[in-house]
Amino acid sequence: MDYPAFLLLLLSSVSSVSVGQFPTTQTIKDWAEQMQKELITLIDEASGMQHLVQMYHKHSPHFTVETNDAQQLVAAAAGNIEKLLAKRSEALKRLAAEAEKFQMEHDWREDSEAEKIVYYNAKEDFNQTDRKKNRYVPDDFEIDDDFKRLVSYNTTAVHIPTDIYEGSTIILNELNWTEALEEVFRKNKEDDPSLLWQVFGSATGLARYYPASPWMDISNSANKIDLYDVRRRPWYIQGAASPKDMLILVDASGSVSGLTLKLIRTSVSEMLETLSDDDYVNVVYFNDKAMYASCFENLVQANVRNKRMLKKAVQNITAKGTTNYKGGFELAFEQLAQMNVSRANCNKIIMLFTDGGEEKAEEIFKRYNPNQAVRIFTFSVGKHNYDKGPIQWMACNNKGYYYEIPSIGAIRINTQEYLDVLGRPMVKDHRKAKKVQWTNVYLDALQLGLVITGTLPVFNKTNTGTKKAPKYQNQLILGVMAVDVSLEDIKRLTPHFTFGPNGYYFAMDPNGYVLLHPNLQPMTAKFNEPVTLDFLDAELENAVKVEIRRKMIDGLTGNYSISTLVKSQDERYIDLGQRTYTFAPVKGTDYSLALVLPQYSKNYIKAKIGDTITQAKFSESLLADKFDEYGYTFIAPRMYCKDLKPPEKNQNNTEFLIEFNKYIDN
């Protein structure tokens, strides 16, 4: 715009006022009305609005104005997502069933020879010359369009944590029987070419995944230690155990000062990392008396924010006074017994971190835990000569387990093994436990971007016993089977061709976190944490949205038309607008899908040209290289078809446009 001309326009619109005389209200009103008329005229001329109206009238025989049926759109999109996840669930169930069969058929060998078990170690250096006899690197790696990295569809890859000995008997046996999964992985991929990563995460830490791919970019990681452990991933934690209410009890008496206290702090932080959003937790410490470690006086959801606050609070615990187990356990049991607060209402557990002591606190357990409804896990931390008998008794007499953490190297392993114990009831009641669970959004370890993962526990169904004693089924969880779904795949099932840029879909999980939303754009997503954005944080909150959130979590359908503040995607502007929220559950999952439409997106233009070739010719005028010829201007560079390749120079435009129209119709 010519700014001097615009200023002249404004000055000419202002009537003269005597020097020193303040303009009257009517004069100011006249100025405003005159400026309004001039600005409207200017905008009409600059935007070509009238010309646009004439174009619509001219071509009116070729289109109709249709109404977006929000309920129908949501139902269709939710149905498509349901079909996608159901298809992935079937692949998952097939994998879990075959894994259990392969393990049952496997003959356990104590004398397995490492050299005879050949596999591809994903951490293997491509350029390594002195490779072990039982190792190989596939020679058919190629960059794949779906994975955006080197993959081989002819084999699987294995990842073993750095702190796990690859030549141990249990690892060698698992390498042996899990090799058979390769054929099932490959068959699943043939049946569903859109499948992404298929992974088996073992309770021992071994992970086998398909297609094979190098674990990391060696050039960028030469001086880094690989700390990945599949048992610490969000999807494994969710799939390996049912929800739990956990009270972490920390001994803060004077005897734990120094290195022992540092080990306890680190152990508690690692323990918190084994919890998911389905769990509830709090931390209590005790010496002469018991106290809350943080401002939380009840169990709280184990989400990223709350766990971070608890970790920070644990770092501030100091050691002093004497050990009072009775006071600590009394407060712990009272916390778990509260009924007026949110909780998982499934497993109840107390985790005791201490250096040991002579007290058993038997009367406390008799009073609060006569039926062992609360499991007690005890951890003897540090190197010392205290009697371990009392804390071993606490665990063994309350359906728990006893662990020792003498040094920092034992923390990661021992703070996650309790999951195996909690998995036993799932194995016993395997029919009910065999339910596919879908995770929160998180960052894929193999650089696939943001994904959700379907998980299914894999149980040990072998029987043990002797000829004299009856056989019984092992109560062990072998691991977790998983398949990934990229958020990009889900977005493709929620097309917005008919409602423009400011209408949008969003999806929500049972914790109120969004997995689809225009504002879900994490700039600093952390590898080891789920990406959690609450719906009420994704948008500007009001009372109606609180109700929408609750109903979507409950799996209900609904429709609300509300006046709400809307922030632009660049978060620079806020506008008050009318929006319609329509939502419905995604059947077969705990997710819910919603469609948000502004008033101006309730209608759309639909071409009524029957002949596809004629329609393609009309569309041809919209190609970028035809703009000058037809006098068009490209206003809004919005990408609707990111996965539709543009025509090559020698390709027939008509063929491309026919394919384009089919893409939109589907």
Automatic annotation (TrEMBL):
UniProt subcellular location: Membrane
GO MF annotations, alphabetized: metal ion binding; voltage-gated calcium channel activity
Signal sequence bounds: 1-20
GO cellular component, one term: L-type voltage-gated calcium channel complex
Domain of life: Eukaryota
This protein's UniProt keywords: Calcium, Calcium channel, Calcium transport, Disulfide bond, Glycoprotein, Ion channel, Ion transport, Membrane, Metal-binding, Signal, Transmembrane, Transmembrane helix, Transport, Voltage-gated channel
Main location group: membrane
Pfam families the record matches: VGCC_alpha2, VWA, VWA_N
PANTHER family hit by this protein: VOLTAGE-DEPENDENT CALCIUM CHANNEL SUBUNIT ALPHA-2/DELTA-RELATED (PTHR10166), VOLTAGE-DEPENDENT CALCIUM CHANNEL SUBUNIT ALPHA-2_DELTA-1 (PTHR10166:SF6)
Official protein name in the record: VWFA domain-containing protein
Lineage: Eukaryota, Metazoa, Chordata, Craniata, Vertebrata
